[in-house]
Amino acid sequence: MQIECGFYNTKFKIWDQYEIDMDMNLWPCCHIYLQHLEFGKVDECISHIDNNLRTNTIENIRNEFSKVLNEENWKDEKTCPPRCIKICQKK
Fold it and tell me: Any residues with CB less than 8 A from the CB of 25 and at least 6 apart, and which?
């Protein structure tokens, strides 16, 4: 399985961009943010992360996202978020 995330810079191993909603929630990408808008929830792998910039720092949020959303986890269907598989899996 190969994920090609347009928000993640594989060369530098960092996120290039984020989404911030009107409630000051920081999202790792537009696809996960849209999932939240459409269904009112996100994949379990990031649901535990306090992604609100009013209650958490951008550094902490980014670090938490990086623990779950990374190249190593994207290689395995057991650790890869379902949204990443659905939207960003290279076919």
Answer: 36, 51, 52, 53
**Residue 91: its pLDDT value, please?**
67
pLDDT for 1: 73
- CA separation for the pair 23, 90 (Å, rounded): 32
Determine the Cα–Cα distance for residues 74 and 65; give it in Å rounded to an integer: 13
The percentage of the chain sitting over the pLDDT mark of 90, rounded to a whole number, equals 69
Q: Taking the CA atoms of the chain, what radius of gyration do you get in angstroms?
A: 12
Inter-residue contact 81 to 48 (CB < 8 Å)? no
Residue with the two structure tokens 């009107």: 22
